[in-house]
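Quick one: structure for this chain?
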Amino acid sequence: MRSSTLFFILVVTFVVSFLGLFVFGFEGGFGGRGHGMGAEVPRSFWLVLFVVPLVIALAVLGYALVFPELSGGKPEGEPSVPAVEKGEPALDAVLRVLNDGERKVIETLVAEGGTMLQKDIRWKTGLSRVKTHRILFRLAKRGIVSAEKYYNTNRIVLADWLMKQKTT
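Got it. Here's what it folds into:
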């Protein structure tokens, strides 16, 4: 939905900008010569009026190309569980699709029995407080871990469906 709206806005902006530049940017367009309507509007005003949206549209397009994960993505709902090959433990399947920081957190949780305090995860992994929080947020959003308040920190628990098969 977001990417189609972004695409529509970009198309409209490009059309308006190019039309304005080609129709009004040449001789006989707005400004430049007297039209008998009082004060003249400088040609540079009309040029800026049509160039600024074009520059903004190009910036938005560049941003969408550089950060594609922000323009689309999976719909919210069920956590994504990777496909498990026959005989492969779920934990191994999950570890295959995680990035380095996420993998480090999950391996630390598994080594400690599946439950740790968030501040202890931070110290064991060597990650910053913010980085640990962001990783745990992403993992919780996918249903890999859950967090519960524990005094001034969180208790992080590895999902049951991962803990059941970790010893196989």
